[in-house]
Amino acid sequence: MLSALLVRTTLAGMAKQRTTKKRPGHPPTGIRPGEKVSEYERVTLRLPPRLRQRLAAAAGALNQPQWRVMIDALEAYLGDGKPLAGDERRVVKAVLQLQQKRSE
User: Fold this and answer.
1) Contacts of 29 (CB under 8 A, 6+ apart)
2) What separation in angstroms does the CA of 47 have from each of 15, 20, 28, 40, 62?
3) 21-29 contacts, C-beta under 8 A, 24 or more apart
4) Residue pLDDT, tens place only, 37-75
5) CA dist 51 to 45, 47, 58, 96, Å?
6) What are the residues whose beta carbons fall under 8 Å from the beta carbon of 76, sequence distance 6 or more?
7) Domain boundaries in the chain?
């Protein structure tokens, strides 16, 4: 009797664990909730090496993907967004300097 109760309790616990399993991979993200980056139009852009390094440094320092840094920069340039704060600029410059020292 006791073993039957333990089996039912164990099976019930196992069923609950299976329903809470996370999906693999990154969750879909976009600028607004519910949007997916994969649904955005694609743009190809050629950048000089120095600017490409600055983009990578900014993305790393701000802990954001490069596409998000580009969108924020374009919005700031067009007057619809806010530019980087002074402390954010200093962090980006510090990361860029570290990257340059590593490549020497």
Assistant:
1) 35, 36, 37
2) 52, 44, 27, 21, 20
3) none
4) 788 888 899 999 999 988 998 999 899 999 999 999 999
5) 12, 6, 10, 11
6) 82, 83, 84
7) 2-103
CA-to-CA distance for 90 and 84, rounded, in angstroms?
10
The model carries a pTM of 0.62
User: Does residue 25 register a pLDDT over 80?
Assistant: no
User: H-type helices in the chain, by residue range?
Assistant: 2-19, 49-62, 66-77, 86-103
70-95 pLDDT, tens digit per residue, is 999 999 999 888 888 888 888 888 88
Q: Compute the half-sphere exposure of residue 51: CA atoms within 13 Å on the CB side of its CA.
A: 7
What is the residue type of 81?
G
